[in-house]
Specification:
InterPro entries: DUF475. Pfam families: DUF475. This is Integral membrane protein. There is one protein chain. Helix 1 packs across helix 12 and helix 3 crosses helix 5. This protein has 382 residues and is mostly helical. The protein is built from 12 helices and no strands. Helices cover 84% and strands 0% of the residues.
Length: 382
């Protein structure tokens, strides 16, 4: 079952790592491996959400999501989107961006370096909003309670995450303005670029969130309608087969899943810019990671169970927050790609281990409670 579901992902991983090794040696292979882990971990909760929605669709729409959806997710968001970001930021055509990346790496590297402030400001703001909206939300399960409890209380203030993000952006752009003044105004355009790109990142986040919310509302309406039909069937005594959505409802679900996947892709793609500017390595790492996310979605649907590692979502969002800070810092200072990648991996690994320890503690507590009940029954029987 495991090999059947993840077989293609394993094969593509091997091909991707071999291709990375031939392309740039051991360092490139390591970067692709880090990007793959980063993409899987950041999109893990996406796979869980996908599985919960996908199981309601009929076989036709499940196939559409797992075929056309894969093409959109892997080739559209993970391969084309990074090229588009570079092309827009460097003010060149997408084909020229690919051509330079493959044939004139020095010039491409210079263009990306020049465009880095706008990419970092855009991406930093987008990732920061994801992190802030997560950390300010009051949730039942908390990982680092000493941080999450007080922040959840602060989160009751409306638009707090937007205000903090804008303050961070203003401070960042003001820093560049000060730096420009000290150097005779040579970097005035850089400060303006940071401010405009950061606002664009904030707007993009809000648009994507708005679209996701729209499709969520559509799905809730459809689920309410299905529930009413079930109650009607129960009242009339007519037998009703299990709900498997098709037609317009399934189409809305498909659109919702694609928008949701795109929003999760943003953090992976933009976070990847904090690790490497090479679109070839980015495409390999994120593409392989996206295949695992799809395989994991299929696995969860077929098994009918969701994962028990409850802190993994927390670790992924802390990694997003760390990447946001790193991106904003790299506007002014250079940070080694391996260090950047390892920060996210360490946070995710820590959250995974915390989840394992939590599951063990719960199992031990349950075992002790069962043993205590058995002793009580034996003593009362005597």
């Amino acid at each position: 079952m495991l090999l059947k579901t993840f077989g293609w992902s394993f094969a593509i991983t091997a091909l991707g790592l071999v291709a990375a090794g031939f392309y740039g040696g051991w360092e490139a292979l390591g970067i692709v491996a880090i990007l793959c882990v980063l993409e899987i971990s950041l999109s893990f909760d996406n796979a869980v959400v996908n599985a919960g929605i996908l199981k309601k669709m009929n076989a036709f729409w499940q196939k559409i999501f797992l075929t056309i959806g894969v093409l959109i997710a892997v080739f559209g968001m993970r391969l084309v989107f990074p090229v588009v970001i570079v092309a827009i930021s460097a003010k060149i055509g997408p084909i020229d961006a690919v051509d330079l990346a493959l044939n004139d790496k020095d010039k491409y590297q210079q263009l990306v370096t020049d465009a880095h402030p706008s990419i970092a400001a855009f991406g930093g703001m987008f990732l920061l909003m994801i992190f802030l909206d997560f950390i300010f939300e009051d949730r039942d399960i908390q990982w680092l309670r000493w941080i999450e409890r007080p922040l959840a209380k602060l989160g009751k203030v409306d638009m707090l995450s937007v205000c903090i993000a804008l303050i961070v952006l203003l401070i960042t752009s003001f820093t560049f303005a000060t730096h420009a003044h000290q150097h005779g105004g040579a970097h005035v355009d850089k400060a303006q670029t940071v401010l405009i790109s950061g606002i664009a990142g904030l707007i993009t986040y809000m648009v994507v969130g708005g679209l996701s919310g729209y499709f969520e509302d559509k799905l809730e309406e459809e689920e309410e309608r299905e529930h009413e039909e079930e109650e009607e069937a129960a009242r009339t005594g007519k037998k009703r087969s299990p709900v498997v959505l098709a037609g317009q409802a399934a189409f809305f679900m498909f659109l919702y899943l694609e928008v949701l996947d795109a929003s999760f892709s943003f953090d992976g793609v933009i976070g990847a810019f904090a690790i490497t500017n090479d679109i070839v390595l980015m495409a390999l790492g994120l593409g392989v990671g996206a295949m695992y996310v799809r395989s994991l979605t299929v696995y969860l649907v077929r098994q009918g169970t969701l994962d028990d590692y409850v802190y993994l979502e927390h670790g992924a969002h802390y990694a997003i927050g760390a990447l946001a800070v790193i991106l904003m810092v790299t506007i002014q200072y250079q940070i080694n790609e391996v260090i950047t990648g390892l920060v996210g991996v360490v946070l995710i690994a820590w959250s995974f281990w915390s989840s394992v320890r939590r599951n063990r503690a719960l199992a031990e507590a349950e075992g002790k409670a069962t043993a205590s009940d058995d002793k009580t029954e034996v003593s009362s029987g005597v």
